[in-house]
Input
Amino acid sequence: GGGAYGAAKAGGAFDLVRFVQQPQVLARIVSAVFALIVFACLVGDGYTSQPEYPRLFCVFNHNEDACRYGIGIGILAFLACIFFFMVDVYFPQISNTTDRKYLVLADLGFSGLWTFLWFIGFCFLTNQWSWTKAEDVYLGADSARAAITFSFFSIFSWGLLLTFAY
Output
């Protein structure tokens, strides 16, 4: 008997320790860290140049779309984690069941979409990395591999958020 979307539990004092120990909050923090790693790896070392051609290019097979995709979903995932983290903070204070329903459905929909987009991102980055010539990458190979790895981990962290929202 928690009521619709936990509405019967609305109100009360905020307990930080109890809040941080909630599984969806931990999963959201992990997802934000993974998104930040992917974004930082691609922005920091995702672009390189050759000595004879000083123009910057993406390390993933010179495909600018690969870097843009990884950076884009990384930034949006990080911002969404911050937004839904704030929703998690204020959620117990919301007594209107309609508002609670829409927030839960937004979390469910966004988590499902981002699970899918991380899967696409992992496949896209992995494919482009497999076609990348070793001589084209002087620096940034480790960052490219880290972006691929944490894109893979993000599939599961966002899938976990999807499960918690469901």
Q: What stands out?
A: The beta strands are 47-50, 53-58. Residues 10 and 92 are 5 Å apart (CA to CA).
